[in-house]
Amino acid sequence: MGHTENKKQNREVRAHFTFFFQKKFFFSYLNFLLFWLETVVAMPRLLIHVPVDCDKVKQCIQQQQQQQQQQKSLQVRDLLPIPNVLDVQADTQTQLDDLETHLRKTCSSATLNLVYDHDHPKGGRGQWKRHSVIKPIQHRFTIDANNKQSGKSTSVSPEAIPLPPPGFFYGSTLANVYRFPKPDPSKTHHIAIVSLGGIFFKGSAAKYWRVTGVSPAPTFSRIVKVDGTILVSIPESDLENMLDVEMAGSACPGATIVVYASVNSNMGYIDAVISALKSKKFVPDVVSSSWGSAEPFVDSGSVALMNVVLQYATDAGVNVTVATGDQAAGCAISDGLPHIQWPASSPFCVACGGTTLVCPSGVYSASTSRETAWSFSLQANNGGTGGVSTLYPKPSYQAALFPQFKGRMVPDISMDANPATGVIVLILGNAYIVGGTSAVAPLMAGYIAATKPGHFITPLLYSPTVQPAFHPITSGTNGRYRCAPGYNLVTGWGSFDGQKLASRLSKAL
């Protein structure tokens, strides 16, 4: 009897332990599944660092699918290798460490919270426009045995084109026309470019510089992805990006170029500029931006924070060139009032406007060249943007100009931007004619990188010592203001002789 009871007890113990281990295994397995499920669900948040909104995620997926459908015919080759996605939370905090005191003194906590709040209807989701105008057809032409343009029917390899087609320019020919000085090869020349959309083609930039005679060749170093940006090809943004890179490199042979690609939002824009300014490995001489938004569409928090960041740049001796825009004096707002673009309206940047340049000889002179405003065209609905800011008061360096206006006036300088006299851009073996103040901002950035002034140049542009370096633009209108001798609200001080400007800027200090 005792033996039988022992066997029964043993069976009960084994059954108990069997159930215990099965239960333990079951819950361990369940915990394992829950862990991986949680990880998979959380992964998008870790990469994007914004609250997950299912409807918006679906919308983004649909938009990306549409973009990919549009890009089926585009062969993406020689794409620049992209480094790993940055941890934006840690990276942005690190970049802001030595800005923190300055930011807190200048901006209220409410302002900072407004800008950094990705759920705010404006603070985190404002859309920014490219400041470039692409001609509606791809430019095609042939070259005869004497290297003269003989038509516009057959596409040819850019290597066969020693000169741009009549009436248009390469970045290098514009740099020659405006007499940009050559950079000192014994020094480093670093250009940072801000991008808010599209992708890049390293091989296209290298080929463009080689074909157009830019020597020594610039180095397209790398792309830094800010705020967890995922690069997606958007045809017009791709061309915008290559315009920026190819023009900046053409204006400063031998330069090193780094692109800071961020999300298309107010905070994405600001974070891109901060990332460029606070880079430890790549200290820029200049930052170029060809993106902006009409002032009425920008929230006060973004306005305040970007202005503080730009002021920090000027204190560090880094100039930021910004395109003023391509929608004349109204910025395509149908209220009948004049408007300008931000952040070009900030007093702490170099606001770059547009002209129309006819220079058949390739040498800028009063007898062979004609430069007028990129005037407003009702048919094309474009023209160089200029006017008076409603966000910023008139800075001290503009105090003597137009006493009837109380706001910051733009542009500061201008160069060729009319697509009718535009620049040639190369992307994936195809040449395009492109216009817009997006061409001017990177050209000016290249000029600054080549001359390395080491200080904020915009106030000096208004010095009487510097005035003889400019080509006054006296003809044209942006639909609201007209050109006149001296400073005007269409082209600023006009274009300039690069060698004279470098010399006179040094004397104006």
Summary, kept brief:
With 509 residues, the chain is α/β, with parallel strands linked by helices. 35% of the residues lie in helices and 16% in strands.
Derived from helix and strand composition plus strand pairing, the structural class reads alpha/beta
Q: Can you give the helix content as a percent range?
A: 25-40%
Ends: how far apart?
A: 111 Å
Tally of contiguous helical segments: 13
SSE layout and pairings?
Elements: H1 2-48, H2 54-70, H3 88-96, H4 100-106, H5 109-116, E1 129-130, E2 133-134, H6 171-177, E3 190-195, H7 202-211, E4 219-225, H8 235-251, E5 256-261, H9 266-277, E6 286-289, E7 291-294, H10 300-315, E8 319-323, E9 341-342, E10 350-358, E11 370-373, E12 387-393, E13 407-410, E14 413-416, E15 423-427, E16 430-435, H11 440-451, H12 458-461, E17 470-471, E18 495-496, H13 498-508
Parallel strand pairs: 3-5, 3-6, 4-5, 6-8, 8-10, 10-14
Antiparallel strand pairs: 1-7, 2-16, 7-9, 10-11, 12-13, 15-16, 17-18
